[in-house]
């Protein structure tokens, strides 16, 4: 299989456009992340949930607009996963600062994202775009987001029900971290395969 075919398989051909509505939405989502983190770290959870909900809605909206109005762009393909990774990392960081989750979760998630960032840079040197999102990666990201929301909810009130919700959130987060790393392993294998094909 030629390198050109492999590139198309792993990276669709987006346009070189920058000033689009989806890109603006992705940028606003990135800008909202520090506000969410500060609110969570200060235990201002109700307002944090409102901003987080708006961010989640915008996540689906930008992709829908991009596909519907032919505004898929190279920068958009970069901004969207960056926003997802930053939201997860910064939210976990804020939960750690607020003493809601153990710090080892932050370290493990951060290490995985660092490895993925290096992989993206290496592939970019060989003219490859972002790898396609794998189902395991989507599942891991979804479980981490569910865990983050559950832990934020559990911090609003203090009773036996929220204590149970807190434990469920931690358990979901641990499973999410496991899937997050499994997806990372899959992406690394895909990246190595592309680099090996480059040598053929």
From TrEMBL:
Query: Can you tell which superkingdom this protein's organism belongs to?
Result: Bacteria
Q: Which UniProt keywords apply?
A: Lipid biosynthesis, Lipid metabolism, Membrane, Phospholipid biosynthesis, Phospholipid metabolism, Transferase, Transmembrane, Transmembrane helix
Q: What is the membrane topology noted in the UniProt record heading this document?
A: Multi-pass membrane protein
EC assignment: 2.7.8.-
Keyword check for Aminoacyl-tRNA synthetase, yes or no. no
Coiled-coil portions:
none
Where does the record place it?
Answer: Membrane
TM ranges: 21-40, 46-66, 78-97, 135-158, 164-188
Q: Does the keyword Signal apply?
A: no
A single GO molecular function term of this UniProt record: transferase activity
Q: Which family does it belong to?
A: Belongs to the CDP-alcohol phosphatidyltransferase class-I family.
Task: Provide the protein name.
Answer: CDP-alcohol phosphatidyltransferase family protein
